[in-house]
Amino acid sequence: MSSELTPMHSDLTPVTREQAEDAIRTLLRWAGDDPAREGLGDTPRRVAKAYREWFAGYAQDPTAFLARTFKEVAGYDEIIVLRNIEFESHCEHHLAPIIGRAHVGYLPRSRVVGISKLARVVDAYARRLQVQEKMTAQIAQCIHDTLQPLGVGVVIEAVHECMTTRGVHKRGVSMVTSTLLGAFREDHRTRDEFMRLIRG
Questions:
Q1: Alpha carbon of residue 35 to chain centroid
Q2: What is the model's pLDDT at position 90?
Q3: pLDDT tens across 25-47, in order?
Q4: Known active-site residue 188
Q5: Per the residue annotation, which of 92, 148, 157, 161 is the catalytic one?
Q6: What does each C-alpha distance from 79 to 67, 123, 125, 135, 149 come to in angstroms?
Q7: Residues 21, 132, 144, 193: which is the catalytic one?
Q8: 14-21, Cβ contacts within 8 angstroms, sequence gap of 24 or more
Q9: Average pLDDT over residues 49-65
């Protein structure tokens, strides 16, 4: 694996692993600890490696996951829903974890996609610095633009650690966002059916 972190935006200068580890040492000193002490010696390396995993979505193209579709579905033309897709993301304001689950549904026009690909689309957007509202819209728009179904619905429920571990310190609070496109927005019967399906 390259020691250089490739930026998503082409106008950003690549950052080496060594530069990333130096930045982590600076933050450890800022927090009031000694990055050279025994317990923290490997922390910069570990954090840099964790960042690779947490933010792997920047190196992924979510539309690519939806490229392979299937037309032989015996005329199936009802809503398809994948519920309870667990994800881990990070708040772009405080870099604090966002832990939640997504419910994704679409009404196929003429083709369907493997269900694991819907989960991969969720992960590709979740593994970036995020705002939940934006992430919800991105997932729905990606499915809408790539599969061109009759409608798309995405509902996300998540707990934001930036709210539970700092600031107002409110536990037991979750945030729910939704994006409805096409028939899911325009036809109340389709919308109601989707909402019933995700509630189980």
A1: 31
A2: 98
A3: 999 999 999 999 999 999 999 99
A4: no
A5: 92
A6: 20, 22, 23, 22, 10
A7: 132
A8: 17/48, 20/44, 20/48, 20/51, 21/45, 21/47, 21/48
A9: 96
